[in-house]
Amino acid sequence: xxxxxxxxxxxxxxxxxxxxxxxxxxxxxxxxxxxxxxxxxxxxxxxxxxxxxxxxxxxxxxxxxxxxxxxxxxxxxxxxxxxxxxxxxxxxxxxxxxxxxxxxxxxxxxxxxxxxxxxxxxxxxxxxxxxxxxxxxxxxxxxxxxxxxxxxxxxxxxxxxxxxxxxxxxxxxxxxxxxxxxxxxxxxxxxxxxxxxxxxxxxxxxxxxxxxxxxxxxxxxxxxxxxxxxxxxxxxxxxxxxxxxxxxxxxxxxxxxxxxxxxxxxxxxxxxxxxxxxxxxxxxxxxxxxxxxxxxxxxxxxxxxxxxxxxxxxxxxxxxxxxxxxxxxxxxxxxxxxxxxxxxxxxxxxxxxxxxxxxxxxxxxxxxxxxxxxxxxxxxxxxxxxxxxxxxxxxxxxxxxxxxxxxxxxxx
Length: 412
Hints:
By secondary structure, this protein is mainly α. It has helices at 4-27, 29-36, 44-70, 75-93, 99-127, 130-141, 143-162, 164-169, 172-182, 204-210, 214-243, 248-277, 284-305, 310-322, 326-335, 342-371, 374-394, 399-411. Helix 3 (44-70) packs parallel to helix 5, helix 3 runs antiparallel to helix 16 (342-371) and helix 11 runs parallel beside helix 16. Mean pLDDT is 84; it is low at 191-199.
């Protein structure tokens, strides 16, 4: 059993390998396409895009079911079991002899992450008070850019030297170890005697009120648009770099380093800024999120038109502002949901943002890229970036009252 800081560190490592696994697939997508499809197949990109859909569809479907379980049973047991499942399935992706088998392994990875996704931010919310929650969740979310970048680098370099299958083999053992460590942790809801779990009162009204909370709903819309952007870009950036005549190994390494540098600093800074501004601007979590996206939009467009290496600079700046919302938007989700239904709140959010976000982005951007080109596909993404920023700013006026209502309910 470890303290709150140790629990945060363990969850941070798990989140790191979560995103490594996701982006390894994106990094080796061109190699997978060459393995299973003919070079002249105009629908090959659409088909490999279905690998992303296989993961996210099962992820979003299983998350609400497993999120309900996380509200009722030990969240650590669910997290540990989920991490072990997805690690085994990820390693199995490298063994796939056919595209259908590879598709099936990504389905199993999605089920594993469906158990992990709703439970982990809820554990963090239970461990830390609201005045520190923004920066703590930002620290947890810092694994997103770092893990994504490492996934690109591992996939690009290992895939180039050993083949794409080895990129999957190497990510499985660390995940298995981290999953086992979860079984030794105590759920934050367990009483001090280590035997009796506190029973949080919940009712149908709590669930109904959650889905009537305007800031929660608007946040889900904005995050859906954001997820379309990050999911689509993350999966198709290797193909885009090849379209712009950048070598896979070098290009993905540079992009990975940019994602680490810009995304890590931005994610941490977004949580800190939103926490600091909250006493003066109660809607700060949405202000920071929305303004960041509106700044990212024109800079992202510039990156599509300027030549390399100048395009790398524009990408760095755009990614910085794209990740600014990560901590604040997830903190807002926690702050407007009662602890008794918080895992369900995150699970429902996971379902919505993936069903209408990256699940649509994978095939749609692949279709646009296959029938037009990747420049047109990424130009389409810029409009989605703008809409997500507008959505968060529209929710600013609702967030303070919704957060205060939850605080009052917890104090009664």
